[in-house]
Each structure stands twice: as structure tokens, then as C-alpha cells.
Amino acid sequence: MRTPVTIIGAGLGGLTLARVLHVHGIPATVYEAEPSPMARAQGGMLDIHDYNGQLALRAAGLMDEFRAIVLEGRQAMRVLDRDGTVLLDKADDGTGGRPEVQRGELRQILLDSLPTGTVRWDRKVSGTRALGEGRHEVTFADGSTVATSLLVGADGAWSRVRPLLSDATPEYAGRSFVETYLFDAETRHPAAAKAVGGGSMFAIEPGGNGKWIGAHRESGETLHTYLVLPMPLDWFAAIDFTDPAAATARIARELDGWAPELTALITDSDTAPVLRPHHTLPVGHRWDRVPGVTLVGDAAHLAAPNGEGANLAMQDGAELGTALASHPDDIEAALIAYEQAMFPRSAGEATEADRLHELMSGENAPHTLLAMLAADEPTS
Ligand SMILES: Cc1cc2nc3c(=O)[nH]c(=O)nc-3n(C[C@H](O)[C@H](O)[C@H](O)COP(=O)(O)OP(=O)(O)OC[C@H]3O[C@@H](n4cnc5c(N)ncnc54)[C@H](O)[C@@H]3O)c2cc1C
Prior knowledge:
This protein has 380 residues and is α/β, with parallel strands linked by helices. It folds into two domains: 5-72 and 98-170 and 281-361, FAD/NAD(P)-binding domain; 171-280, D-Amino Acid Oxidase, Chain A, domain 2. 35% of the residues lie in helices and 23% in strands. The strands form four sheets. A seven-stranded mixed β-sheet has the order 5-4-13-14-15-12-16. Helix 1 (12-23) packs parallel to helix 11 (309-326) and helix 11 (309-326) packs antiparallel against helix 12. Residues 8-14, 31-34, 46, 124-125, 154-156, 160, 177, 276, 297-299, 305, 307-311, 313 line the site of flavin-adenine dinucleotide. It is found in: Cytoplasm.
């Protein structure tokens, strides 16, 4: 295939696509809004699954690089009651299929694997329009434009490419994360470090009110925490997040009765609390084929966070790249093949994400979660 591919967004989905295209000798340009690779901290740890994210890395020819950044031991998992009672404590025995890596390091591997100049930084897309016959024009914030015969929106939740295909827009899911970090936890926050353990920890308020804490032990003894609060957006709007002490105090009031080593994950944070509202596209979001354009990752199927989104974005990117390489003279056949697999896959995962949310916040939580984890255990 000679048609160069225009990719909007240098997240994990767009970069995996660019890399797989490169492996197959297909040229691509990635336009990214952020001014540089270092413009923003890339968030925390991701577990990369052997049934999707790792398949993508294999297609990208980057398994050795991936193995080199895996954080050993981080697949350990604990489930706690809100009073600190340990309900499940599972060691990382090295046999799990979900090794953990830092998102920033994974992204860097992908960036390093692309020819210089593939990613054009500081190119924020402001709009897109159809030119006819499968061609599209992309307009950037500085007023410049490019025209392309193959446009891929990998630009996340608030995609500027999606309107070419669908009227759907993300809607608030009724809950948000409040994100905090504790650094050098073993020495500075030992009780919280012990509660989190060596990998990930979930602490769940029983009785179905939807509050829970997820925390990860990241590299450098950092504890990265997401507190889930099932509150409307205007409840959060009344909190002044520019005043970290006041915001923390208000958030902590929602944790009355929780064990101090768990509330410390919020109240002792070394960083200001960051609000991350959950937005989702409708489960089963899809579109009729429009020549010359498609979507990957969150742009296509934004779901509630359930540890699959980054993995799915990478799988989309790899499968689209492989489909384009397999149909060198027929872009539409490639896009049909890609979308026919992607639509049901992402609908299934979005349904699972909703189910997981129920397990974490239904009236029988956390026991429903424990039952699911027990059912996932290998029997031999
Ligand atoms: C708090 C939180 C925790 C999560 N934890 C996990 C987890 O543990 N495991 C997991 O698998 N998933 C997780 N996810 C989901 C995961 O982060 C996303 O599903 C994944 O990042 C989607 O990748 P993407 O490449 O599609 O989009 P993104 O990662 O959003 O990348 C999109 C890129 O496009 C760029 N962009 C956006 N708009 C424009 C524009 N107009 N012009 C040009 N560029 C643009 C952005 O700057 C960005 O670089 C989490 C999500 C959240 C919010």
C-alpha cells in the first residue's frame, strides 16, 4: 500500500498503529496536540494483558523492549474492607498474564521505534471535514490544514475525527476518580504502604454506595491512588481543587469510618488531588462505513475504566495496521475487516466494564468482587 496514513493522536493506540504500519513499510504521520513527548506526566501503571495488549506489542515487534520494562512482583493483589480487614491477599507468583509497566515507559518504547519525524508535536486538530471520494481535510489550531486519503482518529475521548463517523459524544458516567500520589511510601508512609502491599489494592465500602479506593505500588515506592466517588459533576464543581488542602479535607469527609491507613492514601498525598470524571460512549457504539476514515481506542469506544482501555487501544492499532498491510490495494476492505472485529470486541469489553462497576459498588460488594476473582483462578 502506498497511501500514507494520517493518524491523529500519539497515545498508545495511535503509536501502536504507526509502529505496525512501519513494520510493514507503510508510511504514517501522527499529529499530536501536546507540544512534546515530555509535556505531561503519562499517568501510572498499566497491566498489559496476554490476550490483547501483548498481542499488539508482538505485532509491533517490541516484546523484548516490553519485557525489559516490566515491574516484577506488581501482579500481587489485595482486597480490603473499608476498616482495613484483608479479604484477599494474592502474591505475584510470576505466572500471571498481566505484567505491569509504567505507561510513560511503554509510550517511550513506541516513540523510539518510529522513524524520526513520524510524530508531529504541537499539532492540535480543531476540525475535520469530508472532501469527497474518501478524502478528508484536517484543520489544526494554527489554521493550517492537511488533506489525506486515509485518516485515523486516535485522539481519545474527545476525538475531533469521530464526528465524521458518528454523532455520539461521551456522557458523564455518574462517578469520578480523585487521584493522589504518595512518594517513598516505605519510609514516609509505612502504614499505607503495608495496606497496599506489593502490587494493587482495592478497598471497597460494603453496602452498595459505590465508593472504593484502588491503589498501585509503582516504581520508586510510589503509591498511586484512585478514590472513586459516585457523585454528580456539580457536587465536584463545588469543591475548589485549586486549594489542595481544602479539597482534600472535603474529599476526606466522604471517607468517615474508613481505616486510617486507607484514608492516608488521600489525606497524606504528596500531590494535589486531581479530579478525573468518568465519561463513556454508549455501549456498542458503532458507525456505518465512511470511506477513508476510521477510529481506534477511546475515540471509538470510550468505556468506564476497567484496566482494558489502553490494552484495547493498542490492540485496535495493531489490528488496523495489520489489516491495512493485508489489503495493500483496498483500503476499504481493510477498514471493514478491522471494524467488523473491533465493534463486537469493544462492545463486549464495555459490558464487562459496567459489570465490574456493579461488582465494586453493588449491595453485595465486596463479596461479589471476591467471588469473581475466585472464579477467575485457574483450577489446576
Ligand atoms: C484515570 C484512568 C486510569 C486508567 N487506567 C487504565 C489501566 O490501568 N489500564 C488500561 O488498560 N486502561 C486504563 N485507562 C484507560 C486508558 O487510559 C485509555 O483507554 C487509553 O489511554 C486510550 O488510549 P488512546 O490511544 O485511544 O487514547 P489516549 O491515551 O487518550 O491518547 C489520545 C492522544 O490524542 C491526543 N489528542 C487529543 N485530542 C487531540 C487533538 N484535537 N489533536 C491532536 N491530538 C489530540 C492526546 O493528547 C493524546 O496524546 C485509564 C483511564 C483513566 C482515565
